[in-house]
Amino acid sequence: GLQRNLPEFLELLAIPNVLTPEQIADCRKRMADATWVDGRVTAGHQSSKTKDNEQLSEDSHLAKQLGQFIVAALEANPLFISAALPAKIFPPLFNRYSSGQSFGVHVDNAVRQVRNTPHRVRTDISATLFLSAPEEYEGGELVVEDTYGAQRVKLPAGHMVLYPATSLHRVEPVARGARIASFFWIQSMVRDDTQRTLLFDLDTAIQRLTRDVPSHPSVVQLTGVYHNLLRQWADV
Length: 236
Fold this sequence. Notes:
Elements: E1 13-15, H1 21-32, E2 36-38, E3 51-52, E4 54-56, H2 61-75, H3 78-84, E5 86-89, E6 93-98, E7 102-106, E8 111-113, E9 120-122, E10 125-130, E11 137-139, E12 142-146, E13 149-153, E14 160-164, E15 168-171, E16 174-188, H4 193-212, H5 217-233
Antiparallel strand pairs: 1-14, 2-4, 3-7, 4-6, 5-16, 6-16, 7-15, 8-9, 10-14, 10-16, 11-16, 12-13, 12-15
Helix pairs in contact: 4-5
């Protein structure tokens, strides 16, 4: 189910089944023969000191193809659209942790330049899409820190977690096997986490009401409230 038990200002949301088992198998098969490079190539100055993993080269044909495939799946995912309200999606990257590799505590860069283009993406939301099943590796949890402690995330293959890019986070050492994932950032039309969470909660309630009591006059009224708030808060 959805992980929705955190304070509003630090909302983690699990999005299930972004990719099907067949799609995961196809991605993994194509990645098996790929060339992996040192993950520090995409790290900022501070992050590079604590980052120890491998990545598919951003310039590789495979990484670009798989990234476009993932973006297409996201654009067709209603839960993702409702939660993230995406304005821009950074082209997905791919990493692999094995043999004790980890990524220490860090904060993601506020703005990322898309390689070989003039385009920049403000990183409002961080995303990790798991491509390895949890039983394939030991350790490797994504740990997102907030004032109430640390939230540990290790989801089934094909599931994705969204969390505010403002948060401190890390990846625990992988003791056995390999943790393969796609990671990327979203610039939302609504940059404020709290406003975005309120809109998501309102949208979720409207959808439930539409399903359960479709003729209720409040459906139209609440939909109007949603769009008026979005109009006020959206940066497009």
